[in-house]
Design a protein that fits this description.
Largest sheet: 2 strands, antiparallel
Distance between the termini: 17 Å
Order of helices and strands: HHHHHHEEHH
Number of helices: 8
Helix content: 55-70%
């Protein structure tokens, strides 16, 4: 069975980004029910040397639509800026919804046409060259899921009633 570059990238990003949008909504509803200001969560981290909730959500966006944009343009992919704007909870929700909307516009043909291409992960210290599938599978998806999981964990830690299905999103079952 062959699996396409679109299937390993965009389809996976859409499934989990949809779940992230859902658990952000559930988080906001929980915070309203409990009288918790959602803005207090934005800068929350699980451990003092970890990046905050805001960064986790911004990284979900960066490791999905920004990866696909770089792939389609044939450009190097850069790590997220440590100086990313301090978005509020509503802006974080909007950025995830925007990423989903942009991903939904990407066609399988566009992505699959880039299957044989290289991707470069560019940092201030130089670049690492990958094939497009290897970049998605060995770098982007692990990062994407790490940040989605960390955001989920922060919400759980704050008492939001979430379960595994909230993280998994809508499975792509056989029709």
């Amino acid at each position: 069975m062959a699996i396409s570059l679109y299937d390993i990238s965009v389809a996976n990003y859409l499934q989990t980004a949809g779940a992230v949008a859902g658990f952000l909504d559930r988080g906001l509803a929980h915070f309203k029910e409990t009288g918790t200001d959602p803005e207090t969560i934005v800068e929350t981290s699980l451990f003092p040397d970890m990046r905050p909730f805001r960064f986790q959500i911004q990284s979900v966006v960066h490791q999905s639509i920004d990866v696909i944009d770089a792939l389609l343009r044939g450009e190097a992919f850069h790590p997220p800026s440590a100086d990313a704007p301090r978005e509020d909870y509503a802006a974080l929700q909007a950025s995830v919804r925007d990423a989903i909307a942009r991903l939904e516009k990407v066609t399988p043909d566009e992505v699959n046409a880039r299957e044989g291409s290289d991707m470069v992960f560019q940092t201030a210290h130089g670049g690492r060259r990958y094939t497009a599938p290897n970049f998605i599978l060995s770098f982007s998806l692990p990062n994407f899921h790490f940040h989605a999981t960390t955001a989920y964990d922060i919400l759980r830690w704050q008492g939001v009633p979430l379960g595994k299905r909230d993280y998994m999103g809508v499975a792509r079952v056989k029709a």
